[in-house]
Structures are given as structure tokens and as C-alpha cells.
Write a structure and sequence with these properties.
Structural class: alpha/beta
Number of strands: 7
Number of helices: 10
CATH topology: Rossmann fold
Strand order of the largest sheet: 1-3-2-4-5-6-7
Low-confidence stretches: none
Radius of gyration: 17 Å
Oligomer: single chain
CATH superfamily: Alpha/Beta hydrolase fold, catalytic domain
Order of helices and strands: EEHEHEHEHHHHHEHEH
CATH architecture: 3-Layer(aba) Sandwich
Mean pLDDT: 92
Helix content: 25-40%
Number of domains: 1
Amino acid sequence: MRLELLTQRPHGDAHTTPILFVHGAWCAAWCWADHFLPYFAAHGYAAHALSLRGHGGSEGRERLRWTSTAEYVADVEQAARQLGGAPVMVGHSMGGFVLQHYLGRHNVPAAVLLASASHRGLSWPLALGVARRHPRCLLSVLITLDTYPLVATPELAQELLLSAQLPRSLAAGCQERLQDELLRAFLEMLVGPRPKPGRVRTPVLVLAAGDDRVVSPAEMHGLAHAHRADIAVVPDSAHAVMLDPACQDAADTILAWLERLGMS
């Protein structure tokens, strides 16, 4: 499988451990490129962002309708092998759910679950709330099996993913880069196989977004408890933290946590 991997390397000496970023729904590796890749490269890390199959420049778009969480886990395994050593991993939203499955089978130096789907999957209240607010969007999703209608306009994308403080022109620019996300991924997070936090031996940071309209604070605290993880909150961030005005706070928090683990 040919997978897109965006890379930014430090100009000077690099840490022996790289960082691998895994995106969430409707996104691809591009979402890490503006802020997180250059930030961590500037702090000495070889920073890599993966596009899961069917996303961005990776193969598999024609099979996206049938792609499973297990196949996304295989993509993370392939990317980690390409890097030549176990990386620090950061998974956002759906990517955090994929990463939790990966961590049940592999040890890495450290992992960050950033505004991640819970180990219990997506919450039914979220799904029902979207259905009540946007019944026409939901009907389109059910007909096409594609969840893109939920983020098909800047207004919808901003309501679900992006900060209300983000200027509309910037929100429109982000929305233009979003892509199809087929319903199977969401169904598996609602009713599919669950990660097994009890198997994880990796140090984990759960990093929640204070203004998240996808994942609740209670879910984030439950996720941290299940993984025996540290937890921190980016107070004013919406769900798409890496595209948020508060992304600097999130990056600073991750770097400080890695330094506390002795990875500076």
C-alpha cells in the first residue's frame, strides 16, 4: 500500500525518536503541516504525518467505502516500520481511536490521544444530536454512505469541528480541504470492536479540547482513566485542535509532557 507521509526534519541534531501524527475523519496528513510539523521539527524532532489509506495522497480512495479500522491500524504499522524505529505517536479524533487499537498490540515510547474518540467509541448522544439539528444532512449520509454532508459547507464544518473564533475566510479554507469519509468508519466507532486499554503499556497523554463539540469532557476523563493516562485541556480549542487558533497551546503541552518523560 502506497501511503502519503509528509515529513519535516530539524535543521540541526535530531532526537533519536521521531514523531508520527495520525489524522482524524475528513482530513489527511495536510492538517498537521501548517503548525505541528514545523513546530516539532524546530524542537529537534523528525516529524511525520501519515495519510491513512483513501485519504490525501495515499492509495485506496476507490475502496474507502469498505475500509475498516483494522486496515487503518495496518497503515500505522506500515508507517512506523518505514520510520525505522518506534515513534512517539499522536492521534486525533478517529486517528486516536485507530491509535488505541495499535497500542493494544505495540509498545511505543509515548502516545498522545488528541481530542480522541473514546475507547468506548463515538457517543450515541452526539450522533442523535447531529440527526436532530441536521436531518437533511443525515438523510444524505444514509443515502450515499458518505458523511461528507456533515461538513459540506464552512458553516457546518465550523459548527462541528472548528472554533467559532476562526474567521470565516479561514474556516472556508479549512473546509475546502476536507474530503469524503465513508460511513463504515463511523459505524465501527459506534458499534464495532473496541480498543483494549488494559493491554497498553505505553505512557499516554489524553489532551482534550475545552470547546469540543464532538467529544465531551466526561468522555476524555473516562479515556484517561481507562489508559491510566495523564490528562490536560487546551481551554479554548474546538475539536480540530491542529487547525485551531489555540494549536500553539496544544503543541506546547505535548512538548512539555515529552520533556517530563525525559525525551527532550
